[in-house]
Amino acid sequence: MLYLSIITGCVALLFAFYLSKSILKADSGTEKMKEIAHAIHEGAKAFLFAEYRVLVIFVAVLFLVIGIGLKSWLTAVSFLVGALFSVLAGYIGMNVATKANVRTANAAKVSGMKAALLIAFRGGAVMGMCVVGFGLLGASTLYFLTGRVDILSGFSLGASSIALFARVGGGIYTKAADVGADLVGKVESGIPEDDPRNPAVIADNVGDNVGDVAGMGADLFESYVGAIVSAVTLGVIHFQENGSGILFPLILSAVGILASIIACFFVRGDEKGDPHTALKMGSYVSSGITIVGALFLSKIIFGDFKAAIAVITGLIVGVIIGFITEIYTSDQYSFVKKIANQAKTGPATTIISGISVGMESTCIPIIIIGIGIFISYFVYGNEHGVYGIALAAVGMLSTTGITIAVDAYGPIADNAGGIAEMTGLDSSVREITDKLDSVGNTTAAMGKGFAIGSAALTALSLFVSYAAAVNITNIDILDPKVIIGLFLGGMLPFLFSAWTMDSVSKAAYSMIEEVRRQFKTIPGIMEGTGKPDYNSCIDISTKAALREMIRPGIIAVLAPIITGVVLGPKALGGLLAGSLITGVLLAIFLSNSGGAWDNAKKYIETLDEDGKGSERHKAAVVGDTVGDPFKDTSGPSINILIKLMTIISLVFAPLFMAIGGLL
User: Fold this and answer.
1) Cα–Cα distances in angstroms (integers) from residue 559 to residues 82, 485, 488, 642, in the given order
2) Bigger pLDDT: 436 or 569?
3) Are 314 and 393 spatial neighbours (Cβ–Cβ below 8 Å)?
C-alpha cells in the first residue's frame, strides 16, 4: 500500500507534465502579445531566482543547525528535501502560468469563453498537481527509505520555511506594484487598469505570478505536507501495533490526488454559462470521489468508519468555509454590494464598511472549525481523539490538487486580461477575461478561506505532536510562564502583519514616486508615443521584496526557539496556542476584507451609471488598494506563521526538553 502512495505522487507529476504540454500546444497570439508575455515571464523568473539565492543561505544555516545542533542528520536531509520540493513545485507552477496567460488571452480572442477557461484552469492545475505530487512523493519516499516517522518533521519544516518567504516576498512584490499602478494610474491619471502607458503595469502582472501562483502554491504545499506529517506522527503514537495509523493518511492522500485528476476532466464551461459553476463542478466531483474512497479505506484498514467520518468532517468543513468566504467576498451577495453602495460617500466609508465585513466574516468559519474539531475528536473518543483531528486536516486537504487549480486559475485569467489591454485587443476579449478574472477573485478568496481553515486544523495537529514530543499532557493557564507565552503568541500575528503591511507601504511609496516621475519626465507617455521604463518598476518591487521578507521570516523562526529555551516547553505551548487563536481570526479578517473590497470595485466597474472613472469608482479603488496587502500579503502569510512556529517547536523539541527553560 505504501508503494501506491509513491506511485500516485509520480502520477500527479506526470499529469502535470501532460497538462503543461497541452497548454504549450495552444497558439500564443500576435507578436505583440508574445512580447508582453515574454516580459512577464522573464520578470517572474528573475524574481524567483533572486529570491532563491537568498533562501539558499537560510536553508544552509538551518540545515547545519539541525544536523550539528540537534545531531540529527537524517532530519536535516529531510528538511533539505522539503525545501527543494517546495521550490520545484513553485517554480514549475509559475513557469507554466506565465505561458498559459497569453494563450488564455488568445483563446478568448479566437475561440471564446470556453477555450479560455480551459487553458487558464489547466495552467492552474499544473501548480496543483506539482504541489500534491511532490508533497506525497516526498513524505512517502522518505518514510519508505528510512522507516522513521520522526524525520518527516524535517520535511515539513523545509516546506514551511520556503513557504513563508515565498508568500511574504511574493506578496510584497505584487502588492507594491499593484498599489503603485492603481493609485497613480487609475486614481490620479484616470487611465484604465493594465494600460500599457502605466510604467508599473508589467511589474503588476509579474506580481500576480510570483505572489498568487508561486507563493500560494508554496503555502498550500506546506499545509498539505504538514497535515500528512501530523497525521502520520500521531498515527505512530496511537496505533503502534500494525502501522495502520501511518498508512491511512498516506493512502487517503493518494486517493485525493486521483480524485483531483479525474475532476479536472469535469471542468467544462460554455460560452454563455458562469465559469464559476464549471469550476465548482470540479471541486464537488473530487470531494465526492474522496468521500467514497475514505469510506472504503477506513473499513479495509481499521475495520470501522471512524477514520472516514473524521475525513468527511474535514472535507465538509473546508467546503462550508469556502462557501461562507464566497458569501462575504462575491459581488453576487449583499456584503460586497453594501461596500459598493458605501463608496458613493467616499473612501472613508468604503474602508469602514470593508473592515466591518471582514470582522463579521470571522464568526461562522470559527464556529464551523469548532464543530469540525468536536466531531472528529469525539468520533474516536478521548483515547485517539487527536488523531481524528489530524485526519480531519488531511481530509480537508485531500483535494488540494483541484483546490489549487481553481485558485491559481485566477491570476492566469488576470494576466490574460492585462495582456489583452496592453496589446489593444477587441473589447469583447477584455469582457471575457474580465468575467474570468472576476470569478478568479472569488475562487482566490475561497482558496484563502480554505487555506486558513486547513492551517487551523494542521497547526492544532502539529501542536498535539509537539505536546507528545515534550511529554506535556495539559497546559496550566494559571502558570505565569504559560500566561506570558499566551500573550506573546497572541501578539505575534499582529506584529507580523504590521511588518508585512509596512513593507508593502514602503515599497509602494517608492513605486508611486517612480511612476509619477515617469509620467512627468518621459515625453509622450499619456499620448502613447513615449515608452515607459517598465524595468525600473520591476527592479523596485524585486529589491523591496527581497529586503523586506527577511525580518518577518527571522521572527517566525526565532520566536518559538527563544521562548522554548528561556521559558521552557510549557510556555512555548502557551505561545503556540495564543498565536493559533489570534492568527486564524486575523487571517480570516484580513483576507475577506481585501477580497470584498476588490470585488466591490469590480462590481462598480460593471455599472452603466456611476461606473468606471466616477468618484464612486475612485473611492472603491482606494478601498481595493488598502485591501491588497490585507488579502495578498499579510493575511495568507499568517497561515504559514502559525504552522511554521509549530513545526519549528516540534523539530527542536529535544533541545527544549534537555534545557527545560533557563528561567
Assistant:
1) 22, 10, 9, 11
2) 569
3) yes
d(CA 236, CA 229): 11
pLDDT of 10 reads: 97
Residue 382 CB partners (closer than 8 Å, separation 6+): none
Packing angle of the helix pair 363-378, 381-397 (nearest 10 deg):
130
Q: Which of 2, 55, 45 is nearest to 550 (CA)?
A: 55
CA angle 140, 377, 475 (to 5 degrees): 95
| Residue 79 pLDDT grade (very low, low, confident, very high; cuts 50, 70, 90) | very high
Phi, psi of 273 (to 5 degrees): -85, 175
| Closest CA relative to residue 247, chosen from 311, 296, 302 | 302
Output 417 or 292, whichever has higher pLDDT.
292
d(CA 329, CA 188): 27
In whole angstroms, give the CA distance from residue 65 to residue 157.
13
Q: Express each pLDDT in 560-598 by its tens digit.
A: 999 999 999 999 999 999 999 999 999 999 999 998 998
Which cell numbers hold the place of 377? 475528536
> pTM (2 decimals)?
0.90
CA distance 593 to 355: 6
Instruction: Return the closest-CA partner of residue 570 out of 648, 653, 459.
Output: 653
**How far is the C-alpha of 529 from the C-alpha of 203, rounded, in Å?**
21
